[in-house]
Amino acid sequence: MPIAPIDVSPETESGYEEVRLQLRERFAAWSTASGAILAPDVGEELLHYKWGYLDRHLTRWTRSDLDAVFLEMYPAKMIVDDGELDQVLVEAATFVRFLADTGLLDPASEDPEVLYDHLEQIGPRFHLHMADAVRYSMGKRVLMEATARGVRLDDWEAMQDFIQAFNASPLAEREAVLGPPARPVPAKGGTGRFTPPGTPPRRKPSNRHRPRRR
Hints:
214 residues, mainly alpha, 2 domains, 9 helices, elongated
């Protein structure tokens, strides 16, 4: 039975969610067939930022796309344990390999081997940018302050209580946490949607299995 085509460049939020789930299912099938043990959401941060900030084409990837995601957007929005940073790039390479192996990688993409090599090359800069507080969004800075005070990111009520208390705190205390404005996250051609200031970033789960590179 032929595989149904995917709208790889959806225009609406609902369309994006449908494509994301389709790609997730296909990735799970590919992962099982390849013998790798992988979390089912590998690659979803790539899709999230590609659709939300770049050109909305979910299977067309270039080195500049990867730079925008991992050197600008991740540092601004994502909270990742230091020990997981290398794994983030390994997972990205695995997702690109999935697209290439299944024929989903758009012909206008750069060669997959070029993309794999580039992900390895940007590793040191990725570490530096993730540690550069100047790049953090206000939302990330507030949540990092909350976790530093013992609030878990998955404790919604406790986090909301912290944010309310933070917003009610003296200006000097808030400025001490927020610091200087974050560097802007780039967008291509003015397309895509933008996360409003203060939207909470996500924490990269730490209970992942390391994929085997073929």
